[in-house]
Fold this sequence. Notes:
Distance between the termini: 35 Å
Low-confidence stretches: 1-13
Shape: globular
Number of helices: 15
Number of strands: 4
Largest sheet: 2 strands, antiparallel
Amino acid sequence: MAKVKSVKKQGSPGFSTREFIINALKGVSIGIANVIPGVSGGTLAVITGIFERLINAIKSFDAESGKLLLKRDFKGFAARVDMLFLLSVGTGMGIAIVSVAKLFKYLFANYPVYIWAFFFGLILASIYFVGKTVSKWSPKTVIMFVIGAAAAAGISVMSPGSENPNPVYVFLCGVVAICSMVLPGISGSFVLILMGNYELVVINGISNMDISVLAPFALGCVVGIVAFAHVISWVMKKFRDETISVLTGFIAGSMLLIWPWKTSIPKLDSLGNALLRKGKEVVAGYKWHLPEMNAETAIAVAIMIAGVVAIIVTENMVKEK
């Protein structure tokens, strides 16, 4: 007896509850990746097989979709931008981001050395794997790498991770972070660390649902992803190796920000007292030091190695995919 094949009609919505749940679970994995510095949400999108569909859906927010909205053709608009797909992935990402942010808030408060050690391992391994995607290292790409590393190291030393709650700057963080999140190999959370607002946005903003932080950040994300999806695509096609090499340099030069063993230096007012913002000292810089040889350091190093292994496993999954 011949088997009857179930064929999904091309162009029809064909979006079942099962597919919604599956894509939501994929969104969970991407959301977790976007919260962890060194792990790329774009990489997880590749692993789960939805990267191309996600980029195409984002790029569909164009003049044509705008015309459909103006005509109040909401069904046509939803079909054009793959709305159900975006909603399912976005739901999963939202659940994951909020849950992991609360966990990280606890870890930063109680085990800061361990959590930074894990991040250090993730980002250390990312330097190799991101740099590996440069098709050919040439004098030009090496120069771009050095420029990126020098710029990031300079930022680390001059203004290492200084938190800035100004809504305009938080908006800019949203623009830059969301553009980083969609690129495989580049971590949006790491960019937030580089810009100094990782704890403000991820640890405090999301876990506390602080609208004063989340509103400008979310607006920046929306503007960034809609405005720059085509720009990112063009830059990566035209100057792919140069772009990746300078990003690799940025990652390498910013390792000082992630070093687990550092003491914060508070910013002082005119009277020599530490400046406070929402009850916390404003950080003016860091004093880096080597760890003491004790049990805590041994555990931190083991966690750091676990971070390196996590990236290696993730990248091997991408290769297999």
